[in-house]
Protein: Dolichyl-phosphate beta-D-mannosyltransferase
Organism: Pedobacter antarcticus 4BY
Amino acid sequence: MSDSLVIIPTYNEKENIERIIRKVFSLSFPFEVLIIDDGSPDGTADIVKLLQTEFAGLHMLQRTGKLGLGTAYIHGFKWALERPYQYIFEMDADFSHNPDDLIKLRNACVKGAEVSIGSRYVRGVNVVNWPMSRVLMSYFASMYVRLITRINIQDATAGFKCYQRIVLETIPLDKIKFVGYAFQIEMKFTAIKYGFNVVEVPIIFTDRTEGTSKMSTRIFREAFLGVIQMKINSWFRSYKRS
């Protein structure tokens, strides 16, 4: 059994899911994979089931509908913590996150980071195939998060991450409020408030070429207001480790 689990939420990813799974299992380090499928009507889960006969380290949790990115990851984190994984990853299914970078993120945690973030902005802007409007929206969203929260993270909305087990054991997962992309901000903010060492690892982010993006301006609007709420709520919370 591997000590590292890659959690990949899916909804209608039939064009990408087999390729991403095969790529992860082809890496030089033996990662395991947990797919969390939100009832994809396109047959994504059926493809995963077929691949489970080939890859012993491939796992899947199926949910009944689109319940949100955050709840998918929380579900996956809890599943992982019931097993002896030491390094737990978040990764998209659409190859916007390069699976080769999983090894870089793991190495960062092995060397002392407690959360490692695949960062698009720690060394300039490293984004491929995004329209300028979306690059600017993402980049300035991270600036806004830094301004409101005072956390020194260049890519606050990044969704490619590795957690050491202790981080997910410490954060009260049931108190994480956001279910959309603001979930990524809340997890970073909370980890930092608990005093964990969060490190950004430079990556190149490439927009999907297959399937349909789930990002929208509505998601960014929700995050805009949610960051203020999150900061205010933090004034009334204790972040002492037990």
Observations:
- The beta strands are 4-10, 32-37, 58-62, 87-90, 115-119, 127-128, 161-164, 198-202, 205-206.
- The domain at 4-234 is CATH 3.90.550.10 (Spore Coat Polysaccharide Biosynthesis Protein SpsA; Chain A).
- The longest strand covers residues 4-10.
- The two ends are 29 Å apart (CA to CA).
